[in-house]
Specification:
It is a single chain. By secondary structure, this protein is of the alpha+beta class. The chain is 21% helix and 26% strand. It is globular, with a radius of gyration of 14 Å.
């Protein structure tokens, strides 16, 4: 039986526990770079499969800690999707940042309904990606 543990720290997380993310990205970060991203984030939540000790989902937040925050990444490994892990990661971040005025996210069109179901409003936005 798979048990998922949720933590809000990258302490004791090794890059070898971060395999399989960034599916279909044209130039995906290496597991070491992924760990660097997690460490540099203002807020992070990880989902860990306790039977393998592998990270199976994560969410990151960039914030000034006073007024606004932005969620740049939320991913769950394909084989773990559909189990509520993404919902739990997002709910934990929403609770942590509930006192801020702004909690924004940009996402692909096929993911919009996921965020709307969690109370986000659809709005216009622009992105520049290299």
């Amino acid at each position: 039986m798979t048990i998922i543990k949720y933590i809000q720290s990258v302490e004791n997380i090794e890059h070898t526990k971060l395999n399989g993310f960034f599916v279909d990205w044209p130039d995906s970060p290496s597991p070491q770079r992924h760990l660097d991203i997690l460490r540099a984030s203002h807020g992070v939540e990880l989902a860990i499969d306790t039977s393998t000790n592998q990270v199976v989902g994560f969410i990151t937040v960039i914030s000034d800690g006073i007024l606004s925050a932005f969620i740049p990444l939320l991913e769950v490994l394909p084989e773990y999707q559909g189990r509520g892990i993404g919902n739990t990661l997002l709910d934990r971040i929403i609770a942590r940042y509930e006192n801020l005025y702004i909690l924004d996210v940009c996402c692909d069109e096929d993911i919009v309904e996921f965020y709307i179901a969690r109370g986000f409003l659809k709005t216009a936005g622009l992105v520049k990606r290299n």
